[in-house]
Sequence to fold (449 residues):
Amino acid sequence: MDGISTTWSGVTSASRMRMRLTLLVTVLAVIAATVGLPGTKALAAPKFKGSLTIAAVAPFTGADAALGPKYQTACLAASQAINLSGGILGKRVNCKVVDTRGDPADAVPAVRQMYATTSNLALVIGCTSDEASTVVPVLDAHKTVSFCMTGESEFDSIHFPYFFRLVPPDAADSVAMVKIAKNKGYKNIALAFGNDAGSQTFVAPALAALKKNGMTVVSNQTLDINATTFNTEAQAIVAAHPDAIMMEALGAAGVAILSEVYQLNNNKMIPVIGTSAMIDPVFFSGVTTGPIGVQNFIKNFDADNGTVNFSGPAYPLYKKLVLAQSGKVKGVPSFQGLLTANGTVHLYDGINLAALAMVMSHSTTGSKYKADILKIAKGAPGATVVSSFAAGLKALKAGKKIQYFGVGGKYQFDQYQTAYGAFEDDQFLADGTTVSAGSLGLCTLTSCK
Fold:
């Protein structure tokens, strides 16, 4: 020992220190590469050979602005896992926001601008009932595959080759709402739907389903979704003494009408049955922080929703990925509340379906990969069932046929590329998440079985 350095197996203490620092830097680099990427075991960030864009075409401003962040979250969650697996055919997936403002007239120039400014556009998600009637023809003309969250009846019988609908039409949604009312023994129903295209598509099928089930519509109110008060409409509803209110009014309009009905009804909440779109953290936060309060609201609110497969293998990763987007998406008061949100669930699955179809077809061009979406959704005899992009990628590389089973279950598309599935009655919990209160069965345009 010389008082300056010591040796061990020919290595000085100074050298050992440098080795330890090198090892520490390596470990930190690995952690940095994998942090925020839940459910993965990657040790280093993959190298990409270019990029692809998925565009979320939806309202991010305007009365229905709560819809856009649901879809953006789905894109960020799915692309995060896809990119960790090396991307799609070696290309990194990026997400882009296209704001339609929830207006069919504003949506078309926004989409045309998207095409003018976006390179390597591989997929569009979102495309709500507010703007689908004007946007889908434009997307189809550009041969862009789109997964839309629209319930408009025009898509029930018109085939757009590049259009896919991951949820049943609004007519089936309305039938499911009536099934909830029937299960609860309600006879006299008030309707309160926004004047936007996305909400009005529920009214006619709801009226038909209520009549078929022997129920009476005691009040039918159309709500101006840009209004701040609904005293006239609230008075009419309260005066009609309904057993329940069936409604869709997103954002501030839904909060305002329920608050005014509550106050005019001597601070007593009339039971409400909402559409699946009202399983929304913005709506929940607005209602529960007002005069109604949390407990009053959760005891008196039900909404129909597509069944979420909580016990399935896709859900744990989906949950981690959605919660990992906290702080990355504006306008979401609770990411826990998105775990059962219709748009987030199904568009996450849709992106995985499309991504696996691109791998299967060896192409990111819509005209070449769209047919494989249907093949992966249906599954061939003996196909390997997969619940994530990583699992599907591994199976495809091994030469296997696959079937995707996602958070929303299996997707079986009809001739118009609409997927019908089972519905459930969802109720909010105090933390803004939801729980199923029972199955409603498979609901079609006319009945639930």
